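Run log // design_07
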């Protein structure tokens, strides 16, 4: 049995060397950057259907209220106008669902919040990270919302400010640019409900009833002659577990 014991000891030693060298390797910044690149590129590149430059769609990425449901994320709708992406509401679990869809986070131009209940905003921190690290974002993340959004985004920035600095110090400006870290809050003025109007795309807000929340907004997207309305608290199936993604009808 001595030969067996010898082989066992040699294999154990080889395994220990691999473990130690592997552990040492992942301490290197360059290796960590490479791992980060692999992780983000494997979860954020849309490998599905080719871009549809003339299409407008809305997909429900979350539809539950604060009541627990392991198969559904809280409120979230992904709007795609050609290659331009917008996310309406980012409740808990929204970003995980968007990652399941291999959403190209670098194409998300802005977040729009219908109102400031927790089930519509609680994933703002993850949405920031998903659209920032390795996403080539050159400015802070725009967030359209009813008044009060400045307080909400300032709170997230305060909570995650240390993280922004740590990631920038670790990975540098190319991967985690500090000047693009944080949010660009854009409170909506009831006298100026057109939020974006640049050629093919128009995004406008409209008031909806959600007493006692005043104001609360829905959003309308017009793109190349197509129109898609998105209402707050829209309840649709389709964001549960591994079910196929479903899109709203555009007319
Ligand atoms: Zn609400």
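design_07 sequence
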């Amino acid at each position: 049995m001595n030969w067996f014991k010898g082989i066992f000891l040699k294999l154990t030693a080889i395994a220990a060397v691999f473990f130690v060298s592997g552990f040492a390797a992942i301490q290197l910044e360059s290796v960590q950057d490479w791992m980060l690149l692999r992780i983000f590129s494997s979860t954020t590149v849309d490998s599905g259907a080719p871009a549809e430059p003339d299409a407008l769609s809305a997909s429900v990425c979350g539809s539950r209220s604060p009541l627990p449901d392991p198969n559904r994320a809280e409120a979230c709708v992904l709007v795609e106008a050609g290659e331009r992406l917008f996310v309406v509401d980012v409740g808990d679990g929204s970003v995980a669902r968007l990652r399941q869809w291999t959403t190209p986070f670098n194409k998300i131009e802005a977040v729009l919040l219908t109102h400031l209940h927790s089930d519509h905003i609680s994933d703002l921190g993850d949405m920031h990270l998903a659209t920032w690290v390795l996403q080539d974002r050159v400015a802070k993340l725009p967030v359209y919302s009813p008044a009060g959004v400045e307080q909400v985004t300032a709170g997230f920035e305060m909570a995650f400010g240390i993280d922004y600095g740590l990631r920038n110090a670790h990975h540098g400006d190319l991967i985690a640019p500090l000047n693009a870290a944080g949010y660009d809050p854009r409170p909506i003025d009831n006298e100026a409900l057109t939020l974006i109007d640049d050629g093919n795309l128009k995004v406008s807000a409209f008031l909806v009833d959600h007493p006692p929340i005043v104001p609360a907004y829905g959003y309308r997207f017009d793109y190349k002659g197509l129109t898609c309305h998105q209402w707050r608290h829209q309840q649709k199936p389709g964001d549960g577990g591994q079910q196929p993604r479903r899109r709203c009808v555009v007319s």
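The chain has five helices and ten strands.
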